[in-house]
Amino acid sequence: MPLLPRRQPVGLPAMVQDFLPPAGEPVPQTLQRGIDLQRRKRFREAEFCYQTVLRRQPKNAMALNLMGTLAIEAQQIETAIDFMKSAVKLEPGNAIFRNNLGNAYNLTGNIDLARKHLRKAIELDGRLVEALCNLGKSYRSQLEGDIAEGFYRRALAVDGQSLKALVGLGDLLTDMGRQAEAVECFGHAIAIDKANVEALSGLALARRAVKGDPTLALVQARLELPMTTDRERVYLHHAAGKILNDQHEYRPAIHHFARAKAISGNDFDIALHTRLYDSFIETFDAAFFEARPKFGNPSERPVFIVGMPRSGTTLTEQICASHHDIHGAGELPIIRSLAGELGFDQLDPAIFAKAMAALTPTKARELGSKYLDHLNKRNGKAARVVDKMPHNFELLAFISLILPNARIVHCRRDPMDNCTSCFMHNFSDAHGYNADLTKLGQYYRQYDRLMRHWAKVVPLAIHDMPYEETVADFETRARGLIEFLGVEWDDACLRFHETERTVRTPSRWQVRQPIYSSSVERWRLYGDALDPLRVALGPLVQP
């Protein structure tokens, strides 16, 4: 079954017969033809070449490995892993195959298997820059910045001109709050290749652009190149929007953000999403929880920061993580994964509702203990561990059954400011509601509706953290937050911007700054360009 066409890449060109291998072409030449085509982003023709080889030699390890790399291009990661595992089984001593498999596991979040294969690749070839960078990426994903930096530095010691290493280290240094060093890395990469999309995007995000910043011209020049893919255009339009926004050119900025959304496209089904929340509100009422009073693991360690992205969740986590007895674990996918054991994320919402209704005290405790095991791997000593996956707001009913003593911090922000900020960021495909202003406003209304319901029925301790009030009276809000978490006050929480830790969210730059209020009512700068959002939000917009 062919990998292509499908969602990826956007705007895939038609297959050209002249690029395909002639009958009887030797296998090595066909493989090289496929590699050359893949480098030119002729993915259909490349796949035809690899499949041609596999029809003749089903156990050709190189062809299997290359099919795996194509599957990654197509965002079919599990398929990629299957191909790459077959290649590694046939040639276990091939460092490149090990690296590719490790990278695929990185993409699925299977960190243990990723590191196993990447370490083996480095053992086989200590100068394999790709493997060193991918291992660095693995540690970066777990907020282990110091370890990640070591691997990127090793890669640059092998090849100081490696764009992958320079950009990877630049992104990491931005996460770690070392902006000047990050800018230096991206600048070095751009000096090598002024059209490198990752470096241009990274540089735009790593610093506040001033008038006349030459990066904007480079971004615009790259947008005009016919070789630029639609996926690259999405990154570039976001970079241009960020630069123009920094320069107070608000109308052109919002135009670039809108172009990025239009190119990326999305089939997010707001009607289906609304029905999901309908089922939650109908099923999980007060009586549901009253009938299940002694469920779950009673630990008080977990703290969940929830809310819409860009609502102050990263700032709130940074305040918490500045406390000597609180660990900030970042955005953990664990709750959603555990809920998946009960059928969450299935198209039919009744599956999850029925499984929740049938959940036994024993199973609830088991699921809660699984979550705590994951926390202990991140930090086994702190009195509280913070999980700031914003969209865990959907799963407060589930959390209340498996971790009844968990504390919930709900970050809220003015709907127009919140949605405008979301629109200006290049979130993953999982945030499909961010595809356009109308859909974004509709999604926010559903989030607001669900949170209002949870506040009435869920037997969890929930603490509101309104963004506007936090920036207006920071110390009062910070002290109230720490008191809610049940630990003694620590003055370091007031100096949150000095806390050295790895932060991977879009707010990573802001949490390095002292508290500021310039983001309040920022949406008004964009005028009628935001009218579709205002209409979609309806009664939630303050007059």
From TrEMBL:
Listed Pfam families: Sulfotransfer_3 (PF13469), TPR_11 (PF13414), TPR_16 (PF13432), TPR_8 (PF13181)
Ranges of the TPR repeats in the UniProt entry: 61-94, 95-128, 163-196
UniProt keywords, alphabetically: TPR repeat, Transferase
Transmembrane segments: none
Domain of life of the source: Bacteria
Family matches, as Gene3D superfamilies: P-loop containing nucleotide triphosphate hydrolases, Tetratricopeptide repeat domain
GO molecular function, one term: protein-tyrosine sulfotransferase activity
The protein, known as: Sulfotransferase
